[in-house]
Amino acid sequence: MHSYSRYALSAAWRFNLAQGLVALSTGPGAGASNLLSGFVVQIFGYTIGFMTLVAIALGGLIFLALLMPETKPEESLRLEPPQGDISTAKPA
Q: What is the pTM of this model?
């Protein structure tokens, strides 16, 4: 087996594992969301139940924004002006 094939299999295995872990966390999260909001709605009403889910979603968004690293290389983040004279460019 070539080393490229070994790398491709290794990368596919890691991707499949990550996809499985995401799916594994999605199911219990959806169930826990309904369970929590059901209890909150029973005790405090629909408005507070909805606001509780909004607070949890915002917490997840903040967590993602602060802790998820940028994956693009620094060079691709900069916008470069077009090269050459754009008035003579042919339309596609």
A: 0.52
> Taking the CA atoms of the chain, what radius of gyration do you get in angstroms?
23
Pair of tokens at residue 29? 């999260």
Of the candidates 53, 48, 54, which has an alpha carbon nearest to the alpha carbon of residue 34?
Answer: 53
**DSSP symbols for 6-33:** HHHHHHHHHHHHHHHHHHHHHHHHHHHH
Residue 12 in contact with residue 4, Cβ under 8 Å? no
- Say how many C-beta atoms besides its own lie within 10 A of residue 51's C-beta: 13
Q: What's the token pair of residue 75?
A: 């060079």
| pLDDT at residue number 81 | 64
